Amino acid sequence: ESDTASEISFQFNKHKKTPSIGSHSSDMASVSSVSGSVLSVYSGDFGSVDAQGTVEFALDYDEKNREFQVHVSQCKDLAVVDEKKGRSDPYVKTYLLPDKARMGKRKTSVKKRTVNPIYNEVLRYKIEKMVLLIQKLNLSVWHNDPLGRNSFLGEIEIDLASWDWSNRKLNWYPLKPRSLSAVNGVDHRGVMSLSIKYVPPGSLGPKNPPSGEVHIWVKDVKDLLQLRPSGVDSFVKCYVLPDTSKKSYQKTRVIKRDTNPVFNHTIVYDGFHTEDLKDACVELTVWDHEKLTNHFLGGIRLGLGTGLSYGISVDWMDSTQEEVAFWQEMMLAANEWIEGLLPLRSL
């Protein structure tokens, strides 16, 4: 039914008190580091102070060097974070949305003990103009906390497709509270078409199969982020969490220069007991392939989304309502392919 297929065993001792996730493969370590970068745009303390004040900056695109430049000048009348000491230690951070993973963040230096910081710094992105025009600039101001719990002071978001590029002057903009779309991580990353099936042990005959099997048929992905003018070179990684060993890891072939890649790849995981379906989670992530490093594009997690795995609290058991419903339908319809069309997200 598919171009390629692979079969591996689900390995996890459910009687252990803690999941054996210490031995990450190199690929899983890459997942962790990039996911951390992605999530950092949403992490931090958003509720301790109200957004107030203004920020002065200018935008420019250097055609010769193919460089997007954010000239951060200064801020005025920022919120006070430490009221007892009457101080804030602010800095400015920028992201290009929705492509946070690839472009990463840029930030200014920290100015201590001031609500009127002056920066006069330029934050630079090497990026093609046509790619830039499908992005949004998210510029936010933060108080730097020595213990790492930085406080959000306000933000502004600009649609670069409608920006007046003849305007290179410094202008003042009011800082706004964190938008709901940013807090919830709502951004369009594409849609994955797939089918899944659970085959219970012994359901096809005596001892056939000897253990339960989860079949995952990755069909295609539509509307991926276009990172280069030529498109994107994408592939899909798969793990069945909490097993992050190399035995759990599978991936499709790379489809080059295509934002609508067709993978048609089936993966079969055996070693399942029916009760494992309540505690396991199938994580499918889409990546852009490059020689030096792979860039995270988006993913889905199929499970019950309870926050628990074998009684242990885990952050990856966070399936959306759509993902949970898809997984539940598979659990209720043994030996039947369940088709789905699920949006990719930041994980």
UniProtKB/TrEMBL annotation:
GO terms for biological process: exocytosis. Transmembrane segments: none annotated. Gene3D superfamilies: C2 domain (2.60.40.150). Residues 51-173, 188-317 form the C2 domain. It is found in: Cell membrane. SUPFAM superfamilies: C2 domain (Calcium/lipid-binding domain, CaLB). Keywords: Cell membrane, Exocytosis, Membrane, Repeat. InterPro entries: C2_dom, C2_domain_sf, SYTL1-5_C2B. Its main location: membrane. GO terms for cellular component: exocytic vesicle; plasma membrane. One of its GO terms (molecular function) is neurexin family protein binding. This is Synaptotagmin-like protein 2. The gene is Sytl2_0.
